[in-house]
Design brief:
There is one protein chain. The protein is of the alpha+beta class. It has one domain: Outer membrane efflux proteins (OEP), CATH 1.20.1600. It has helices at residues 4-17, 54-57, 61-73, 75-95, 144-210, 216-251, 286-307, 352-418, 424-458, and strands spanning 101-113, 124-139, 312-323, 335-344. A four-stranded antiparallel β-sheet has the order 1-2-3-4, with helices on one face. Helix 5 (144-210) runs antiparallel to helix 9 (424-458). The protein is elongated.
Length: 464
């Protein structure tokens, strides 16, 4: 009679023989974009430094503190991290299928035999005590289990990169919202000072009207400017509160007032981003890495589908003790063992296996399309951000010159009105144009900083 050691030898031989894979060899698809980003000089990814940590990109200590609170408490990031852990647990479940499952069981079986069936013609009670250790295992000769494990591993890696992409998006969203708060707070202060100046002008004109110098038209024109300034001040006050609420939601709690900027000019500028970049650096983006791992998982799934054409071999063994008396259970004569092997081969499945392989192949092709689209979207986002950076500085310089010119125009118009040369309408027009230009300048400075935030995000965490 063969001993259990023979069974162990068989398992060892099959472990060595198993493990072939029927999955196609993975080849990364060519990136469907130009080799260089717009305005980039000839360069390779090896010439570009690694991703910049956000602590180096963000130089303002207050914004750093807000971002740290967001990373610690944001529910979206927490959900993404937990989802990655769930997929990781599923991967470990699938990986465990590569190894034999071992268990143990103990039982007491008590049954009564009627007298008609007993040898002595009398009813009898039978008792059986049993302790077993058992194992079962699917021999993975054609790589089905290994392909499923490979698919689960790539899904886990993809989930990890999705979590990292969520983290980068939250950093960018927090920085952008914090900067918007600073710009809206500055515009609110600008609107308040403009309102105060126009109220003083209205009071001056009303006194002039009482003295018979100014006209009713001058008074009405000044009143319209006061009400327009009051509306602007109220609008920016509402925007500041909305920005504050958005920051509170991102941080998962109330952001402390001392961490909020008073004006955009009070903010430490963000670190610049390198301009001359090859498009190959986009492959470092977490969302593109996630798409590639999903593609690898879909490729591995083809191997599992192909393995369904071949037989499955399952081995089951048990080694234990069996005795009719509890006192004899651990005697040598109570030892018992069993070994069972099963081979199941598909013969006719009405085309199900072929359809399974076809579905897995189409799933791989769809994953290729998603991967290529992710690269194209990344290229477009980065190209737009780089193109905008080139024009924003020019716009800001022009707006600075416009504000200076309008400030001179306002002072000259006011002087001519006080000298009695022109009416007050020219002063109102110049004052309103100056206020609008100053608002536009604040918005352009905000756009420049938010453009850096966008570049940091679309480059997968920024390239130093």
């Amino acid at each position: 009679m063969q001993r259990p050691t023979t069974f162990l030898a068989v398992i060892g031989a099959l472990l060595v023989a198993g493990g072939c894979s029927l999955a196609p060899k993975y080849v990364r698809p060519e990136a469907p974009v130009p080799p260089q980003l717009p305005s980039g000089a000839a360069a390779t990814a090896a010439d570009v430094p690694a991703t910049t940590p956000w602590q180096e990109f963000v130089t303002d200590a207050r914004l750093r503190s807000v971002i740290q609170a967001v990373l610690a408490n944001n529910r979206d990031l927490r959900t993404a991290a937990l989802n990655a852990q769930i997929v990781g647990a599923q991967y470990r479940i699938q990986r465990a299928q590569l190894y034999p499952a071992v268990g143990a069981a103990a039982s007491i079986d008590v049954s009564r035999v009627p007298g008609a069936f007993a040898s002595n013609g009398q009813a009898d009670t039978l008792v059986r005590y049993q302790v077993n250790g058992f194992t079962s295992w699917e021999v993975d000769l054609f790589g089905r289990v290994r392909s499923l494990k490979e698919q689960a591993l790539n899904e886990y890696l993809a989930a990890q990169h999705v979590s990292e992409a969520t983290r980068i998006s939250l950093i960018a969203s927090t920085a952008s919202t914090w900067l918007a708060f600073a710009a809206d707070a500055e515009n609110r202060a600008l609107a308040a000072s403009t309102l105060q100046a126009q109220q003083q002008s209205l009071e001056l004109i009303q006194r002039s009207r009482a003295a018979g110098i100014a006209s009713d038209l001058d008074v009405r024109q000044a009143q319209t400017q006061v009400e327009a300034a009051r509306a602007d001040a109220a609008r920016y006050a509402g925007l500041v509160e909305q920005d504050r609420h958005a920051l509170d939601l991102l941080a998962g709690s109330r952001v402390q007032p001392e961490l909020l900027p008073a004006t955009l000019a009070d903010v430490q500028p963000l670190t610049g981003v390198q301009a001359n970049l090859p498009s190959e650096v986009l492959l470092r983006r977490p969302d593109i890495l996630a798409a590639e791992y999903q593609l690898k998982g879909a490729n591995a799934n083809i191997g599992a589908a192909r393995a369904a054409y071949f037989p499955k071999i399952s081995l089951t063994a048990a080694l234990g003790l069996l005795s009719p008396a509890l006192s004899d259970l651990f005697e040598g004569s109570a030892r018992a063992w069993s070994f069972d092997s099963q081979l199941t081969a598909p013969i006719f499945t009405a085309g199900a296996r072929k359809a399974t392989v076809e579905a897995a192949t189409l799933g791989r092709d769809a994953a290729i399309a998603q991967y290529e689209k992710a690269i194209q979207v990344a290229f477009r986002e980065t190209s737009d951000a780089l193109a905008l950076r080139a024009t924003l500085s020019q716009e800001r310089e022009a707006e600075v010159a416009l504000v200076a010119a309008l400030d001179d125009t306002y002072r000259l118009s006011e002087a001519r009105y006080k000298a009695g040369i022109d009416g007050y309408l020219g002063v109102l027009i110049a004052q309103r144009a100056l206020f609008v230009a100053e608002q536009a300048l604040v918005d352009l400075r905000l756009a420049e900083q938010q453009n850096l935030v966008t570049l940091y995000k679309v480059l997968g965490g920024g390239i130093s």
